[in-house]
Specification:
The chain is an alpha/beta fold and 157 residues long. It has 5 helices and 7 strands, in the order H-E-E-E-H-E-H-E-H-E-E-H. It starts with a helix and ends in a 6-residue tail after the last helix.
Length: 157
């Protein structure tokens, strides 16, 4: 009887949110658009840490661009943070291989240090409330990225 009463009481309690809040960050795209935690509140954010020399990053570029196409109108913002390369090098790369997402140079953000980026690609998904819902080190393909976005409320419809 006591167990049944405890179960009824617990059923009415809200679940405890154990997701960590995203660290306070700032980022400025190569075009000069600025983003912060506050400006992205209410959006789902996919951070992709990449480099121009990373073969895995280049192979997943069409996947990330497809996600931008599929989910931008539902509140997805993709920030592709190039790590450790000059803006000039990144700009030259983008002239040959344009991206659909917003590209940020490492010198214009504090994100790479916050997520201890030392392997590529690294993906982080932040939900509409500013909580980290998933991290993925390395290329795992489109399905894995879509599953992480699903945890942030951007499932298939």
């Amino acid at each position: 009887m006591l167990v049944a009463a405890a179960a009824m009481l617990c059923g009415g309690l809200p679940a405890i949110d154990t997701r960590e809040a995203a660290p306070r960050f700032r980022a400025k795209t190569l075009e000069g658009e600025e983003f912060t935690n506050a400006s992205l509140k209410g959006k789902v954010v996919l951070l992709q840490f990449w480099t121009t020399w990373c073969g895995y990053c280049r192979r997943e570029q069409p996947v990330v661009d497809a996600l931008v196409h599929d989910f931008a109108d539902r509140g997805l913002v993709v920030l592709a943070v190039d790590v450790g390369e000059s803006k000039r090098k990144v700009t030259q790369f983008l002239e040959r291989s344009p991206r659909a997402c917003k590209v940020v140079a490492m010198e214009d953000t504090n994100l790479a240090a916050m997520f201890a980026t030392n392997s590529f690609p690294l993906y982080v998904v932040i939900d509409r409330d500013g909580k980290i819902v998933g991290k993925q080190r390395g290329a795992a393909g489109e399905d894995a990225l879509r599953r992480m976005l699903g945890k942030a409320g951007l499932g298939a419809e």
